[in-house]
Amino acid sequence: MTTNNFTNKIFSISSAKEFNDISIEIFHYQYKNVKIYHNYVNALSINPLEIKHFSQIPFLPIQFFKTHNVICDGALPEISFSSSGTTGENVSHHNIADVQVYKNSFIKCFEIFYGKPDDCCILALLPGYIERNNSSLVFMVNELINLSKNQKSGFYLNDNQTLIDILQNLKNEKVLLIGVTHALLDIAETVKLSLPNCTIMETGGMKGRRKEIIRTELHNALKIGFGVNKIHSEYGMTELLSQAYSKGDGIYFCPPWMKVIIRDFNDPLETLNSNEKGGINVIDLANFNSCSFIATDDIGKTNEDNSFEIFGRFDNSQIRGCSLMVE
User: Fold this and answer.
1) End-to-end Cα distance, the chain
2) 316-325 burial string, b = 16+ CB within 10 Å, else e?
3) Which is it for the CA torsion 290, 292, 293, 295, positive or negative?
4) Which domains does the chain have, with CATH numbers?
5) Lowest mean pLDDT among 122-136, 275-289, 307-321
6) What confidence score (pLDDT) does residue 327 get?
């Protein structure tokens, strides 16, 4: 199986059987070719030949992206992304063997949820990200901006008034404003706009800039400030090549090549049913050159319609408790 065949397969998934089949195929490929994942599976005393369903596949704790080079043997990275972090904090690194796979993933995903980016004005407010030269989020948004045909599309940093003026001038056009949560809140607390045709999408959280608040309080403040009925959200991370999107109320949906599974708080190898709260495991089949099966630090639950919700993150003690096998 070549990586080109993986690309063709994952972006044409149309059934649960196809998803399961390609998941098993990629699992065996990564067990054979990703050294840290191979060692992790062996440490769990799991026989790969006994894996018949994606729910049985072991999920690599996300902390390994901070300590190891998670990439297929022999692959040379075309680009490397790293996560944001406070001074002195060990950050995650994701070496991307084929950047075109990342582009295919986020463009196809965007088109599924929002249509083609060329007919939309895309505005970005990403302080804390744009200043870095290795942010996967900035890379994604920049590519979407380049695909937009609107001359006003672009990044707006430390120039909130210009951004506000553009939003008001384009209020009757299709506009997407994607911003870090704390930066959007800064604007929402200073103006009262009416932008019924604008999609406001928050991502990235407070990043230590402001006190964390519950989602309903945050979204209510943003809805009032921007004059919209719903606040959209993007769920992605450095370690993934795919994104899930929420079009309101914190309910996220994945593209066909991505799936969220909930693990038990006390037994990370045990999966939970719908409506049960636990740790979020992500299957991202676009990650076939690194690891497609990742146990994140996020807490959430899945719903019967395959959507999912996020309730926060593990604290340090919980992270350690769920990752004892790393040590």
Assistant:
1) 33
2) eeebeebbee
3) positive
4) 3-76+257-326 (2.30.38.10), 101-235 (3.40.50)
5) 307-321
6) 32
Task: Give the tens place of pLDDT for each residue, 197-210.
Answer: 999 999 977 655 66
Give the model confidence (pLDDT) of 237-246 as tens digits: 999 999 999 9
Global pTM exceeds 0.90: yes
pLDDT of 215 reads: 86
Buried b (16+ CB within 10 A) or exposed e, 104-131: bbbbbbbeeebeebeebbbbbbbbbbbe
Amino acid at 270: E
